[in-house]
Write a structure and sequence with these properties.
This protein is an alpha/beta fold. The protein folds into three domains: 129 residues, Rossmann fold (3-Layer(aba) Sandwich), CATH 3.40.50.620; 175 residues, Alpha Horseshoe (Serine Threonine Protein Phosphatase 5, Tetratricopeptide repeat); 170 residues, DNA Cyclobutane Dipyrimidine Photolyase, subunit A, domain 3, CATH 1.10.579.10. The protein has a five-stranded parallel beta sheet with strand order 4-2-1-5-6, sandwiched between helices. A two-stranded parallel ribbon has the order 3-7. Bound molecules: flavin-adenine dinucleotide, ligand DLZ and iron/sulfur cluster. The site of ligand DLZ has 16 residues, from helix 1 and helix 2.
């Protein structure tokens, strides 16, 4: 009897030990299915890039001598769900054993487990779940690493990872440069120089794939760029992207990590999240390359440390949070926020320049960098009181790198405080002052960043104070938010009332802003 091995669309890891040796008894299975295209409304580029990368991976396996069954979306035999197709394939290949790599999403993990149990029982077959050989920590490791601690601080986790993988340590095992974290060096405004790196990535023509998706009625949004898709579609392209980032972009990553500009999109971010999340690149190879650039004097410590922290720190940490909180995490709504997303989330058509730019760029490229996601879009959503689950679906759909294990904790936890503060010790909110400091968005905005209550006042300002007023019972005693409440106590009653009135007006007409 043969063995079937399922490979999911975000498991395109050519280095996996599964592929060490071709085995004529083993059939590798990849499938394009409606259950995966339709669980949320996706950006067109996300579907195109995943399908194109899956197809390239199937080809690569075939060329390496493996047996591959690739089910295309429009294949007449396609039953359009992972488990229904597995049923049919198991019968077709008279499989005695079905194997899969640990899925990263709770929904898929559950579906495969339940199906596998029933199938093994009915057919006296065997199933096996193997590690995806990608992450640096085990799925359920986080609670143990934080045992006995009230707050699960990322920084604590990060230092353990630095030690465990001996990254940026000096000869005595102390942190390179005498400190673990150089964040305070990484908050510069971008003056327009050095110039944003030119987009050198090779465009791919996926017009035919796009036509197939349309003929099949797959719904999506955003600019497909079907004839010039620029995301890396196999490991060798991903390695070229990594090379380019390390040699020409990383040196400036730190300085402008938090900067935003209407004259730039990616600034000095790596654009590696898609390649990492579909497992074309291993996190350790990426961070070792960055460390090497520092050791050889090609990139400053603050940039390299900041970059490494995102990958061995935040990325692994949010995954641990996800698995410690699922199922049910997506239902959390600690601040009881219920407003629907304004229509301009789908068009970018708002007069607020920061949001027009951040959302417009997301629709155009399926990417926005961290501060755009957190301090423009997420910040506005939190201040306005948008429904966190609806927002979660929007983030899960729009970004090229969005997979639930990483998107959900970032959106619902870090950005919306909807988990009651597991990830963020205080909500990430700001008025126009922060956005004005970190970007040029406010110049040339229809709204005035200095005004609070006039009809042309920046909406962030009144919404900011109203947020603290509305949530005084939750945050009033939080020492990290004492400053804001102190300022409120100093305000005149009529000023407070004017802020609240302006905020109520704004919240009642979000679509028109
Ligand atoms: P860089 O800035 O170059 O960073 C390098 C790498 O570090 C990234 O590729 C990514 O793998 C990792 N990284 C950085 N920040 C984080 C973080 N907070 N959590 C996890 N990994 C991180 N990242 C995703 O990969 N998928 C998502 O769906 C996602 N959703 C987000 C939603 C919100 C509301 C916020 C605030 C952040 C989200 N992030 C998500 C984190 C981060 O914004 C992206 O990883 C980053 O913008 C990807 O672009 P880049 O590769 O150029 O990143
Ligand atoms: C995101 C996505 C899409 C759009 N389509 C597919 C697909 O057709 N087949 C597949 O195997 N995977 C797809 N994916 C990625 C999956 O959603 C991802 O594997 C799960 O979220 C598990 O993490
Ligand atoms: Fe955004 Fe307000 Fe600045 Fe306009 S004035 S760009 S809305 S922060």
């Amino acid at each position: 009897a043969s063995t079937l091995r399922l490979i999911l669309g975000d498991q395109l890891n050519a280095q996996h030990s599964w592929f060490d040796q071709p085995d004529p008894e083993v059939v590798y299975v990849l499938m394009e299915v409606r259950s995966e295209t339709d669980y949320v409304l996706h950006h067109a580029q996300k579907i195109l890039a995943i399908f194109a990368a899956m197809r390239a991976f199937g080809e690569h396996l075939r060329e390496s001598g493996h047996r591959v069954r690739y089910i295309r979306l429009d294949d007449p035999s396609n039953r359009q769900s992972l488990v229904d197709n597995l049923d049919a394939l198991a019968a077709h290949y008279q499989a005695g054993c079905i194997q899969w790599q640990s899925p990263d999403e709770w929904r898929v993990d559950q579906a495969l487990r339940q199906w596998g149990e029933a199938w093994a029982h009915a057919h006296q077959g065997a199933t096996a779940v193997v590690d995806s050989e990608h992450f640096l920590t085990a799925r359920n490791e986080l609670p143990r690493l934080f045992e006995g601690r009230k707050q699960w601080l990322m920084e604590h986790f990060y230092r353990q990872m630095r030690r465990r993988f001996e990254l940026l340590l000096d000869a005595d095992g102390k942190p390179e440069g005498g400190q673990w974290n150089f964040d305070h060096d990484n908050r510069k405004r971008w003056p327009g120089n050095p110039p944003e790196p030119r987009d050198w990535r090779q465009p791919h023509d996926h017009g035919a794939l796009w036509e197939m998706l349309q003929a099949q009625g797959v719904r999506s949004f955003g600019d497909p760029q079907a004839t010039q898709l620029r995301w890396p579609l196999d490991r060798s392209e991903a390695l070229q992207h990594l090379d380019h980032f390390i040699t020409t972009v990383l040196p400036h990553f730190g300085d402008y990590e938090d900067a935003m500009s209407s004259k730039a999109q990616r600034l000095f971010h790596s654009l590696l999240s898609f390649a990492l999340n579909v497992k074309m690149l291993h996190p350790l190879e990426v961070v070792r390359r960055a460390e090497e650039a520092y050791r050889e004097g090609r990139a400053p410590l603050a940039a390299v440390e900041g970059f490494i922290r995102q990958i061995i720190g935040w990325r692994e940490y949010v995954r641990g949070i996800y698995w410690s909180q699922m199922p049910g995490y997506e239902e959390r709504n600690a601040l009881a926020h219920r407003l629907p997303l304004p229509a301009w989330f789908w068009t970018g058509q708002t007069r607020m320049n920061c949001l027009r730019h951040a959302i417009g760029q997301s629709l155009e490229t399926a990417h926005a960098h961290h501060i755009q996601r957190l301090m423009v879009i997420g910040n506005f959503a939190l201040l306005a009181g948008l429904d966190p689950k609806e927002l979660h679906h929007w983030y899960l759909g729009i970004y090229i790198d969005a997979f639930e294990w990483v998107e959900l904790p970032n959106t619902l936890g870090m950005s919306q405080w909807a988990d009651g503060g597991i990830i963020a010790t205080k909500p990430y909110v700001s008025s126009a002052a922060y956005i004005g400091r970190m970007s040029d968005y406010c110049q040339g905005c229809a709204y005035d960043p200095k005004q609070k209550t006039s009809s042309d006042a920046c909406p962030f300002n009144a919404l900011y104070w109203d947020f603290f007023l509305r949530h005084q019972s939750t945050f009033g005693n939080n020492p990290r938010m004492g400053m804001a409440y102190q300022q409120i106590r100093k305000m005149q009653a009529e000023d407070v009332q004017a802020l609240q009135q302006r905020a109520a007006d704004l919240r009642s007409q979000l679509d028109t802003l």
